[in-house]
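Replying to the earlier thread about multi-chain prediction with a worked example.

Input:
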Amino acid sequence: MEPRAMVIRGGEVVSSEGAGRADVLIRGERIEAVGAVGHVADAEVVDAGGQLVIPGGVDVHTHFDMDAGAVRSADDFATGTIAAACGGTTTVVDFATAYRGETAAEGLAAWHAKAAGKAVVDYGFHMTLTDLRRPAGDVVAEMGEAGVTSFKLYMTYRDRLMVSDDTIAEIMRAAEPSGALVCLHCEDDNTLEDRRRRALAAGRTAPRWHAWSRPPGAEASAVARAVRMAEDAGAPLYVVHLSSGPALEEVRRARERGVAVFAETCPQYLYLSAERYEEAPAAAARYVCAPPLRDPHHAEELWEGLRAGHLQVVATDHCPFTAGDRARGLGGSGWDDFTGIPGGLPGVETRLALIYQKVAEGLLTRQQWVGLCCTTPAKLFGLHPAKGELAPGADADVVVFDPALELPLNAARLHMNVDYSPYEGVVVRGWPSLVLSRGRAVARAGQPVSGPAEGRFLRRQAGAAHDL
Ligand code: MN
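Result:
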């Protein structure tokens, strides 16, 4: 029997390169045609008149079901992917982690166990390495066979995550021939360690000192070091969660001299600022993340970086903690100073709409929005053209986005498993009216469609960093 067909009719189809009125014909899990589609017998017809039709969002930076000392990120692969679907994201790439003393294969197996049978949209994994127990080439090859073609390394958190520059360079050299992409958390650990010690010695324990201890200069100097290592290795580099003007400047200059450096930023660095840390400590603790929120002028520079193309991806670093877990702290019995506060913000549900606001304001084009949130991350991480593109043969991951649909970004209206919203009281205009994951409706008008969790693990190919 032919799989059931759907025609999304009369919408404005937007890709990263163009836009125009077109119909989208879906049969089963795939897109069959984009263009003028005639009558199709027995097809379900969706009227998309006045709406945008875009590829499902691709969020390449989530932390679902992640241990953080005595607490755990509040969304698992069930609630996290339901929230993603409600906001128009149909692919997530989460960070599987091999903690010190674990092999990459063990870390990967642990993340497969967290996700299996729970996700309602498709998912992949990056592999975070915290030490090298075998030759880097062997690890890269083993992960490639397992469908993991990107690696995350930390330049800070010396107690449990950081790797040395030697190790970073070795992994970059090993990754390059296979097309695997190395992703770096760029903050200079010596600066952070020194500032943390000085703050605590002076009794400065409140959340605002978290931000003081991680200055923009520490991010910029780490990005500069990372760029030099990538250049030396002849390997592309992906900077995660870039948060500040000086770090952006390092990326811009590297790209101008032809280095294959890519960088993502996140909605929290575009919409929130360090003013949040001036609230009472219990409230301010909700905004602890790393890098920290910055002074407002950094956000202006990041928006300009997105507009001008110096930043290529918007992802979320979705890693929420409830107010209760913030108060419990990493040790479980309450935090005494900012180093004991679990860090990370919710965001997987609100990314597409938040970035769209700047399309409505005229700062970004619709094509840029699709490129930043869907197509470029899919290309960089080996998911394109199955993901991030509306084209014949692609997975039918489709968002019908209603530019007139309004939603207050209040915790009570959202589906992330967390009891506050960083955007409480903010009303966005523009939200997905229909979200399809491989042809199945997974959300309508911001509400989940109940059904089995049919999200699949995506075995990724090498990405296209050298071609972008
Ligand atoms: Mn992260």
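The domain at 5-54+391-448 is CATH 2.30.40.10 (Urease, subunit C; domain 1).

Feel free to reuse this layout for your own posts.
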